[in-house]
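Q: Could you write out the predicted structure for this multi-component system? I'm mainly interested in how the pieces pack against one another.
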Amino acid sequence: MKTLWKLTWVEIKLFFREPTTMVFTLALPLLFLFVMGGVFGNDADPDIYRGFGPTNYYIPAYIGLVISSIGVISLPVHLTGYRERGVLKRWHASSISIWHLLGSQVLVSFFIAVIGSVLMIALGYVAYDINNPQGIGLVIAAFALGMLSFSALGFLLGALFPTTRAAQGIGMILFFIMLILGGAGPPPEVLPDAMRLIGDFLPTHWVIYGLQGPWFGLGWDTKASLIVAGVLVVATGLSVRFFRWE
Amino acid sequence: MPGIIEVSNLRKVYGSTVAVDDISFDVREGEIFGLLGPNGAGKTTTVECLQALRHPDSGRIRVLGLDPRTQGVALRRLVGSQLQESSLPDRIRVWEALDLFASVTPHALDWHTLLDQWGLADKKKANFGNLSGGQRQRLFIALALVNNPRVVFLDEMTTGLDPAARRVAWDLIRAVRDRGTTVVLVTHFMEEAEKLCDRLAVVDRGRVIAMDSPQALITDHAGTVCVVFSTERRDLEWLETVPGVAGIERFGNHVEVEGSGPLLALVAAALVEHDIVPHDLRVEQPTLEDVFLNLTGHEAEE
């Protein structure tokens, strides 16, 4: 346990010492919120944004986006970089186990996502007068589930990508697909059918629905949570299978 | 006494490249054991198999009585490891790495002491990425020792160290051995192997071609010793009757006696007996370099 905490703490410090990762993970979603909020305001229209005010809609959506960007970019790039440079080999030889590594990455990801989400919510309150989330407890549960799921996905991608370059390139593409089609870009209602169909296959979409359900007072989204949990189970299994130290 | 490490018929193949062909050796508790050979001889693959970082294709390994194939997790906790190709995150601080690696066992050493011993005290808060090559190398050795291992594997530990730092490192490694830790040293530096190892295995093309103490290897495989001195006397024929002497050459007052066995002592005794007491009597010993050359027919690349 001691090793897990130490490794987690070191990783948190490393995150704050690496400005580019920090800016991308924390500032980009804020920028999106700022732009989208500025363009669409927060007046509800029954035909789009599931009938909610755009900014009210986007806050939980961008929390989902923060979670997604950690899972498809930060974590895989971090892990492939570690593997490429021999850091994982160094950890391995010094008895740092896959569970220490996985555990610390999950904890650090949670930590970063919480900061990102708090910043987002704060901006929402200050700049756009958003509504309070309805079911805080369930929002937190959906957040935790989404974060675990995307941590596992990130670990899997980190195991599969051969190089850091691949992780950066493919991760970025995945991120923008998830952003645009997953529910954090244009309102889902205006997307053509084919794009909506693709969106339905993106885990980000279901993380966002899982957050929006309790946030808007629609209750726990069982379908979304089952899909997110399914991704968690499959990604964990596959990442343990495909994980390589070097 | 059974060896603390036992390796028999180890073999590891990567695709069509035979990295380790057939390697067997035993390491005794409390010694510095060397694996000496040129780059690509299979030394690193061998020690990585011993640390359960690679799975051998065949052969039997026991390290501290454990089988790396099935008991790798327990094994890695008991051994220390300095790897040839590994790294740390650029922005991790020196003390953070030591503190982290110390946390894997309750028996860890106080890393402050290691910082002092390895000359890193003033680099405690430096980022790994800002360390020089030599500082990194010393940090890796300190990291290999911080879990207070019973066996420590050092793979090319003095690469990147300047000659002075190398000598300091040798002294520290001897001190580590004297405190009871068994040291397995992988090196291609002949001088390092000769000065530091209690015993060593000469490895070439995935096989052990000789194994003994450096001195015994030199005596057995290096051929002739040369005793050198100066004298004005010309009548030295009687030296040829000294046991072991193979030939005498004169260059003015300078005399070179070639031979084998304990040549210096025998020649010295004979000289004293004939009232010759030269001030510059000395022996030019062959080195491990000569051993290597004789055994393999090719030179070890530096």
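A: Regarding packing and overall arrangement: The longest helix of chain B spans residues 163-178.
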